[in-house]
Amino acid sequence: MRDDTVARNYAETLFELGVRSDALEEYAEAIATVAQLIEDDPKVRLFMETPRIRDEERKEVILRALGSALPKHVVHFVLVMIEKRRQRLLPEVSREYHLLLDAHMGREHVQVTVARPIDDATKNIITEKLSAALGKQAIPHIQVQPALLGGLVIRTGDTIYDGSIRRQLERMRRQLLQVRLPVGVAGAQQAMNQPDPNS
Question: Do 73 and 163 sit in the same domain of this protein?
Fold first, then answer.
């Protein structure tokens, strides 16, 4: 079974535990904490993944370090993943869990690329407009790309809405190149492009 499928299955299990405990957001923060520890600290990642450490030792350390800091169901979930030798998938499980949570809460993450930095008021307007258009709570992730010149590019899932000035200028350029010039104008244009024999 592919790793992404396995991670999704584990995430669904943890999500179901979160539903039963009425603690979806709390579990999201907890599994994200574990994932961040693994991703940000090479020593933690090595400890979690190296075969030189016995699983029982790994579990004891996890219990001491996280047992009182995280919800018991999440800690037990991590221990089970260690037993199953799937602990390297914990960061992916966290990402899959958050996707499930966003879908459950009616939220959608949207990539918004702008030409220059925007203030909070503008970001709030973009959030409101996107939420209204999508019919769900939009969570915009703003990226600055000066090459756009102006406007913005919105990406949600596999769909891209390009309202940038660069895109508009490119569209205008293509339209101008496709225009058929009258015979007289075309002849004059050709003559202008000929080299001057007197030069």
Answer: no
